[in-house]
């Protein structure tokens, strides 16, 4: 099978490109983000040479796909034995490959594409496993991406955080080109894709070793487009013809101050990709201090809550049901049943920390706590490591509940996935779902009681 990875940032036309590829004869399903969500958890399954551990990992990955918000009707529910039999190694990435191969085979195709977008983070793992994988780097003006995210029901909402993430992902994509070389790396400019699509698509097909098909321009007429459009507000435009004027909307949709933030945070990446600036000249970017960033964070959190409340109820339920595959593995929450875990996910924010990142500073006053989904966290007093916490633990409860200065520093001892709960969201839970909030506070108090008892004994 030929494998293709679409990388970049979301809200950049990835569903448009996916549907175009499908019309060219590429199996390009809506992604369940297997590597992003499951690869960091792989070590927590133990020795995968042992059959029970291996079968547990296969089953969890399959459940993630089975619960995807846009169903893979051709192959789901996945046959676990068939998926395992298609694995070349006992690894998460081998399970991913087997599932993608099954999907392509079910359609009679020999090429598949995954549009999970952030797989640039896993280029080394991908290169170690796949032979000759191709990478399509899709990019769009950060200011239009910011406007799109500000209106979407998912993602960051403040220009500072959207731009910071966008810049990081563009840098990661450029590193992919350094790793794999230009012969397996094809840049796709969103603005060019919508304004002059045919020449770009012909070049893209040549790069993939496939024939250009006029149907690629009629992507919106496909059954896949109609299905995706009906599953979420996020994809409601994919069953319409190309929106050729869907660029530079930020000139009307963002304020001058918001544009300045985008250009100050992501200016070098904008310049490198050939996007002109309108508010900030190169070299005159603003630097934002801790107090400003803290105010940006408060506004970002407020807007996230506001936008999430607008999500379609059925879409939200599908997303929570899928993500509960991971939350079910947080031992700290094992007394909650499935429906409670699904409900709790609506109040949590997933965060990733690279090894060595300090995410709580001793002496700081912060109003949130974390559940450790994958990886390990060190608790420090000064430079001394007091204890290392494993997957399933929670940290920061006292600070969230009391608003007292943090007594310890927390640092990611490995690449770590966390679920963040802020006091604002806890208060929202107490209003919306008092039974769930009471249950969670009971779990927190029980954990603190055990911890204090162990310290005093």
Kindly summarize this structure in a few lines.
With 457 residues, the protein is of the alpha/beta class. 48% of the residues lie in helices and 14% in strands. Helix 3 runs antiparallel to helix 15 (313-327), helix 7 packs across helix 8 (159-180) and helix 18 crosses helix 19 (434-456).
Content of β-strand = 5-15%
- Major beta sheet, strand line-up: 2-1-3-4
Q: Indicate the structural class.
A: alpha/beta
Question: In total, how many beta strands?
Answer: 12
**What's the overall geometry?**
globular
**Residue ranges: pLDDT <50 for 5 or more in a row?**
none
Mean of the pLDDT scores? 88
Main beta sheet, described?
4 strands, parallel
What would you note in describing this structure?
With 457 residues, the chain is an alpha/beta fold. It is 48% helix and 14% strand. The protein is built from 19 helices and twelve strands. The chain has helices at 14-23, 34-38, 51-66, 80-85, 92-106, 123-129, 142-151, 159-180, 190-195, 197-208, 223-229, 250-253, 256-272, 290-308, 313-327, 338-345, 397-402, 423-432, 434-456; strands spanning 2-8, 111-117, 134-139, 185-189, 349-353, 358-360, 368-374, 377-381, 384-389, 394-395, 409-412, 416-422. Strand 8 (377-381) and strand 9 form a beta hairpin.
